[in-house]
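It is time I had a proper look at our fold encoding. Can you supply me with one protein entry, sequence and fold together? It will help me judge whether the discrete encoding reads sensibly. Leave the record below and I will have a look:
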Amino acid sequence: MDDEDALLRAICAHPDEDTPRLAFADWLSERGGAVNTAWANGIRAQVWLASGSTDTAGVLQSRVFESAYGLEKLRERLGIDCVGADQWERGFPTQLVGDFPAMASVWERLADRVPCRVLHLSSMSDAAVAEFVTWPALDRLTELDLGAWYSPVGTFGEVALRCVAECPALRGLRSLFMGPLNLTNAGAAAILNSPHLFRLQHLQLRRTHDSPNLTWYTETRLRAGFGADVVV
């Protein structure tokens, strides 16, 4: 493992701490070069801004994240050129977006390079979700969106909901969005009764047009816990 890998691993292992990020910024500055210098200044600027600083000079130093060229270079550097990245905070993207096959091919490496908190995956199926819940570093996620909007690749419903509900690594989730699902009472109950999803504050289950009707009891529990728009 080289110095860059070790520093990025430390950032991912302690995503709430600023010290590993600032240490990486110092390392980038020592290495020199336009991309390294811009990224180092951007990390420091976003860390300062996140801490409440109103330093105008510091704000200007974060412009690398507003540049399409700069972001392209940073995406290549982190190895996320094959998936989308958004919401750069404190120098790193906190949100990754991609279809399941593409993300599956790079996730193990990204888990040690990108302190991702929000993950959006498309092209999901029951089988894909069953594989997804075995991935490393899922305990860092606070928001998860699993969808099959663009290229449905198989059944997506009760099995997928059970896999998510039974995954202890997803205990940090505060927001969960899934669909379009073949939504059943058993699938909804799995989420409601999960011993791991106790931190959930936002839940939305997008149902297919041919999903069976939920019982009054299940709908009442869902709406009581997550509001009227929990099922759409």
User: Anything to note?
Assistant: Residues 34-50 form the longest helix (17 residues). The chain has a mean pLDDT of 92.
